[in-house]
Amino acid sequence: MKIVAFIVLLVSAWLAWGAGSLHEKDPINHTTTPMWILGAVALASLVALFTSKSTAKSRG
């Protein structure tokens, strides 16, 4: 679960940054809505990353 949340965090943060960059370059044709949605996905995956418990069992 943590690996998936980390990958989602990286991808969505990267795409949010790209959407923000597109908005800065051409604000008439690119709104900030995709940036905010992807930022919310990144935040949710960050919360999932820190609140999920590891399911691996120790050998012993």
UniProtKB/TrEMBL annotation:
Transmembrane segments: 34-51
Top-level taxon: Bacteria
Organism: Amycolatopsis minnesotensis
Protein name: MYXO-CTERM domain-containing protein
Presence of keyword Membrane: yes
Keywords: Membrane, Transmembrane, Transmembrane helix
